[in-house]
Each structure stands twice: as C-alpha cells, then as structure tokens.
Amino acid sequence: MERHGVTTSEDADTIEAAVDLLERFEFTEYEARSFVALCRIGQGSARDVDEVSQVPRARVYGCMEALAERGVVDVQEGSPRTFRAVDHDEAIATIERRTTRQLDQLHARLAALSAPERGSESGDVWVLEGVAPVADRLEGLIGAAEAEVLLALADPSLLTDDLRAAITDADAREVEMLAASPSEEIRAALRRAAPHATVLETWTWWEEVPIQQGAISAIALLDGSALLASTRLHAAGASDDHRAVWTDGGAVPIVGMMRPLLESGLRRSEG
C-alpha cells in the first residue's frame, strides 16, 4: 500500500480545514480525522489509519463503525478488518441528504412553534451591527423582493458572494432593479450580477471612496415596503464595521417617504 510521505504545511492546512468542516456536520474530531486519513490513503486497516490520523488506534475502530453507519466508509471483514472511504462525491451527497433531513425536521418543529403570522403592515424597526449580519439581512430582503429593488451601495465588504447570488436571482426573476454606487468596482460587480438591472454612478451621499467613518454604507428599499439603511462605524476591517436599521413593514412613516428620495438620489448623476 502506498504511504504518504512527509506532510507539507499546505497539506496540514488542508487537513485541518477538512476536519473543521466535517465537525460542523456533526462528525466528532476523531471521526473527522479518521475519515480524512482514510481519504488520503484510500483504504487500510485501523493501524494504517492510526499512523496518519493522530487518532489512537483503540478509538479508530469505533470511529470506523460510526462512519460506516453514516454511509461514508465501507468495511471489509477480515483479520485485520479493512476500511475504505467512499468516493468523495458520494460522501458529500450522503452528508447533504442527512443535513437536509435534519433541516426539514427543524423546519417542521419551528413551524409548529411559530407565533401567528403578523401582517405586512407591521411597524417594527430593528437594529443590526456587524458586516455579516448587515450583508445577510440585505441578502434576505433582496431575496424576498417580488417587484422592485432600489439599492445604493458604497462599501464592497457588504457585497458578499451570497448577496451577489441574491441579486442575480432577483434579476432572473425579473424584479425591476435600480442600483447605484460611487465605486466603479461595485458598479461593475453589480452589472455582472444583474445584467438586466439599471446600474448608475451616484455621489449623492458620499464625497469619496473608500467611504469614511460615519458615512452611509448601504440603503435598500424593496417593493416599497422593506427598508434597510446602514452606516460605517469604524475603520475598514473591523468585524462590527457597520450598523443598520431595517424594517419589512410599510407602516413605518419613513418607508413611504424614502422611495421618491432614494430614487431621486440614485438617478441624480444619470445623463
């Protein structure tokens, strides 16, 4: 059986990243390390796995049994027993099916516990702080938009891959989209994400880019009823760099006032 030689630092980083990701899908650390080791050697005995996994041999058998129950390891009886990792595509598909079942079960439990649905005219206003929470909320609001998206975006840290995907999906659903930014980098990214959208240059709320502390980082109005406005709190790079207020109910007075003001501000540089 072919043996792996010295593990390079790059290999070690890849191994640790794979172990970390597997642990997020409910593998124990030893199970994750055993599976990664088996993927590296293809197949082998508990002793073979022990030599490359940093898992005590006495624990390898239990890990292999657990991994076999998960459907990601095959077992060949013998003396000693031989273990083989399934193809990595098959392993991912197996993990995905298990996760989907768990998410379906969670959805059913949460639905049974949900409060009565509130009306679309709710006047609640909420506060978010941090780059990821603000970007995630923008993604969710744009993902739920049915007819219109007005978006002003000035900070590239908010234009995450998931937000780009939500913008692309809205564009594919033929949601009318008007977006603007003072940044050519952001405008180019928006045009790539939403080829049917109107994307403009605007300096209505900004004097320079990168934007400075205290400046507006994003404004979004969705279907005339959901609104998010965020500002930069600190120097770029801080995890809590943005704070946003948002609402998804049209009863908040400022929502009705914002549509003509926002559209005017977005189009101010047009022509």
Describe the structure.
This protein has 271 residues and is of the alpha+beta class. It folds into 2 domains: 9-92, Winged helix-like DNA-binding domain superfamily/Winged helix DNA-binding domain (Arc Repressor Mutant, subunit A, Orthogonal Bundle); 126-267, Endonuclease Chain A (Endonuclease, Chain A, 2-Layer Sandwich), CATH 3.30.870.10. Helix content is 47%, strand content 18%. A 7-stranded mixed beta sheet has the order 4-10-9-8-5-6-7, sandwiched between helices. Strand 5, helix 7 and strand 6 (176-181) form a beta-alpha-beta unit. Helix 2 (29-41) packs across helix 3 and helix 3 (46-53) crosses helix 4. Residues 22-87 form the Transcription regulator TrmB N-terminal domain. It holds the Pfam family TrmB. This is TrmB family transcriptional regulator.
Distance, first to last CA: 70 Å
* Helix content bin: 40-55%
Mean pLDDT: 86
Assigned CATH architecture of the largest domain? 2-Layer Sandwich
- What overall geometry do the principal axes of the alpha carbons give? elongated
SS class: alpha+beta
Number of E-type strands? 10
As laid out across the biggest beta sheet, the strand order is 4-10-9-8-5-6-7
Write the layout of secondary structure elements.
Elements: H1 9-24, H2 29-41, E1 43-44, H3 46-53, H4 57-70, E2 73-76, E3 82-85, H5 88-113, E4 126-129, H6 131-144, E5 148-153, H7 161-172, E6 176-181, H8 184-193, E7 198-201, E8 216-222, E9 226-232, E10 242-247, H9 253-267
Parallel strand pairs: 5-6, 6-7
Antiparallel strand pairs: 1-3, 2-3, 4-10, 5-8, 8-9, 9-10
